[in-house]
Amino acid sequence: MDNATGEQHAAQGTHLRGVILVLVAGTFWSIGGIVVRLIEQAQPWQIVFYRSLTLMLTLTVWIAYRHRGQMGSAFRAAGGRAVIAGLCLSLGFTCWIFALTHTTVANALFLLTTQPFIAAILGRLILRERVAPITWAAMTLALIGVAIMVNEGITLGAIWGDLLALAAALSISSFTIALRSGKSTDMFPAVWWGGGFATLIAAVMLGAGAQSVWVSGWDLGLCTLLGMVQVGFGLIAYTAGSRYLPAAELTLLSLTEVLLGPIWVWIGVGEVPSRPTLFGGIIVLTAVVWRAGYDFRSAPPRSPAKEDR
Fold this sequence. Notes:
Helix content: over 70%
Number of helices: 13
Order of helices and strands: HHHHHHHHHHHHH
Distance between the termini: 8 Å
Keywords: Membrane, Transmembrane, Transmembrane helix
Protein name: EamA domain-containing protein
């Protein structure tokens, strides 16, 4: 095998690794709906506070493990771009909470699904990343699928909520771009910063509203599950995958969150998805499998390499 072929196979292998990591990330994120449904009394900002605090603690352990306790060197290596990425992530969290209180869930979900298009444009302008035609086609198909899923709930007139949902999409896309800009370094500190900023914002909002931080043990356990597993493990997988995939493909493949979320709620609390939700979900699944399947088909064979003579 010549050097060019070996490098091509290595690139395909790392790309495939990125696909798997981002699909795993979307799967972790998808459990958010069912976990929130099981919360009994905690209010949105209380949930955000404990989820974000647990996220920060989870990343502290993860970064310390990866760097053998040398936390300072990890944060110095990630630099200012990690702080910017974390700020974008926390703004995305905050805008999403406000969007859900100012517009319908359907509107917010549909507008959040514009992330792949925003990421594609920003990636092209800032990082000069080329978006493959198959990715554009899959993104469009996924957007159509989500439109069908939420069609019954889309309303007009909730302009501020819709703008906040778009701001959330822009913020998360910007987080992705910042991760990609630091793909040659360990960007896990960016997620730590995101958890820290979001914790601070939630604490300020709780104080401004004279809300207590105290919640029941049951709700605290579920908020911890959200911070450690749903957001924490999900963002660890997403950040790891961001080293190998363009921004547009990252955000597209993470739409498994939208696809799987209604299924977990159906299984967990018996909330049966409507026919449009099922039909639109099949379309989203088709788009994600189509794009991911292309990478699997392009993966290098696992047979032993032989030297060309």
